[in-house]
Amino acid sequence: MQIKDITVSTYNANYRYGTYSMSHGRLAKGQKSIVVRIRSDDGFEGWAETAPLGSDYLASLYTGELAAIQELGAQLLGLDPRSPEAICNVMDQAMLGAYAAKAVIDMACWDILGKSLRLPTATLLGGCLTGNPKAFSVIGIRDPDAAVKKVQDELAKGAVTMY
């Protein structure tokens, strides 16, 4: 099995509850997300997504990760996507950093490996530890009364972890 092609698409992932306020007066309404599809020569497809939070939040930049994915992808054509360690070694030799770009390619390769073995990717990575994974809710920076109200609303919906 060999990587035949890697395609990249993007979309705007807008925040469900509108504007998110962070420290230092930073505001965000969403972020750009990158979706990668890796196709093998025998018809398997692996999919993965990364959504770099932006250079005002993390040391990861959407345009940089997008460019890195495109540059790294060219180096991976013809390699076996079922060999994640070999893929990671090639990416590390080709480029320092670009961790979100490398991670999304890595996960798409794990997806192909799982599909080729007819196993869920989670099983390959050690198995599901819970049948009911928890998500977190973000309170954001707001005045204290509004924050208390948001926490109460989220608790009523069943949230157990909040930031």
Features:
163 residues; alpha+beta; Enolase-like, domain 1; 2 domains; two-stranded antiparallel sheet; DgoD-like; Mandelate racemase/muconate lactonizing enzyme N-terminal domain-containing protein
Structural notes for this entry:
It is a single chain. The protein is α+β, with helices and mostly antiparallel strands and 163 residues long. The protein has two domains: 3-128, 2-Layer Sandwich (Enolase-like, domain 1), CATH 3.30.390; 130-163, no CATH class. Helix content is 38%, strand content 20%. It has five helices and five strands. It has helices at residues 62-76, 84-94, 99-117, 121-124, 144-156, and strands at residues 3-14, 20-21, 27-28, 30-40, 45-50. The strands form two sheets. It has a three-stranded antiparallel beta sheet. The chain has a two-stranded antiparallel sheet with strand order 2-3. A hairpin with a 5-residue loop joins strand 2 and strand 3. The longest helix has 19 residues, at 99-117. It is globular, with a radius of gyration of 19 Å. The relative contact order is 0.15.
Compile the SSE list and pairings.
Layout: E1 3-14, E2 20-21, E3 27-28, E4 30-40, E5 45-50, H1 62-76, H2 84-94, H3 99-117, H4 121-124, H5 144-156
Antiparallel strand pairs: 1-4, 2-3, 4-5
Helix pairs in contact: 1-3, 2-3
